[in-house]
Amino acid sequence: SGRRRIWRFALINATAYRYYQTLRRNPTDTFSMLARPLLSTALFSIFAVTYLAPSYGVAFMIISVAVVNVFTNAIQGASYEAREEIQGLRLDVVRLSPGGFPAFVNAHALIQTFLAAMQSLVIIVISMPFVSYTPIGQPMYLLAGVGLLLGTSFLAAMLGTQVTIRRNNFLAVSFTSVLLITFAGAFYPIEAFPSWAATIARCNPVTYLVDLIRVSLFNSKPLLAPSWEICICVAFLAVLSLGAVTFSRQPFGTSAEKQR
Fold first, then answer.
1. Kind and range of the H or E element at 259?
2. The whole model's pTM is what?
3. Hey, is 78 helix, strand or coil?
4. Is 54 exposed, middle or buried (0-12, 13-18, 19+ CB in 10 A)?
5. What is the pLDDT of residue 15?
6. Nearest to 78 by CA among 29, 115, 33, 37
7. 210 vs 10, which has greater pLDDT?
């Protein structure tokens, strides 16, 4: 047990160091990691100034981009990078190590969630000076919302990485993550959706995660009582945890075993 913990800690550090080396060798890619979400923020802010209330709308879009960035980049980043890294004999090294494949998945999910969160923090810090609207905060709900966003993104990244590598289906993971956040009302209030889309949104647990953060910042009318929204988000965390654990316990042989 002690050796496994040491190995997992070492694996996380090794994976983080590999990311650092990759980013240092590719300054263009490093710049694009930040430039893409900043460009999205600028474009959505222009839309908000043009078609929505200029002060509230811009702040709304900045927070929306930050939330979407954490959720989608954690899932897609972990799934894509892990798939690229675990090619050929590298799979055997990971599979036969003390922490095994689950530790490898945890490392990528943790690091990508951290990187996505730092991206969103930079987006907010850079963008907020241009916003005249002062959000009306509810600190306890905000802390709960941010914590649930990070936890959901991390567990979804773990599950997505498992599916990507075990089922060789990154497209399904990417599409599902975009679908979940699109029908969560991240960029448009649920009230603005067509009736069929609003019905889907209300069945989507990510909707209540987005709404919880929005209510805590803008004091808008919640879809449900915040306590109920927290319960739904916690239940979704439990489902993601169950899925990740179920996948991690499935047999996953080495390349030599697969060739027999």
1. none
2. 0.81
3. helix
4. middle
5. 63
6. 115
7. 210
Q: What is the pLDDT of residues 89-130, one digit of tens each?
A: 456 556 655 567 777 888 889 888 998 898 888 888 887 777
Burial of 29 (0-12, 13-18, 19+ CB in 10 A): exposed
Nearest CA to 73 out of 149, 124, 128 is that of 149
Q: Are 209 and 145 in contact (CB under 8 A)?
A: yes
Long-range contacts of 34-41 (CB under 8 A, 24+ apart): 34/119, 34/122, 37/65, 37/66, 37/69, 37/119, 37/120, 37/123, 38/123, 38/126, 38/127, 40/65, 40/69, 41/65, 41/123, 41/127
Long-range CB contacts for residues 53-58, cutoff 8 Å, separation at least 24: 54/132, 55/131, 55/132, 55/133, 56/133, 56/218, 58/130, 58/131, 58/133
| pLDDT band, very low/low/confident/very high, at 207 (cuts 50, 70, 90) | very high
pLDDT on residue 234: 95
SS3 assignment for 183-201: CCCCCCCHHHCCHHHHHHH
Please tell me the total number of residues recorded for the chain in this structure: 260
Nearest to 48 by CA among 166, 131, 158, 172: 131
CA dist 145 and 205 (Å) reads: 13
Contact between 44 and 130 (Cβ < 8 Å): no
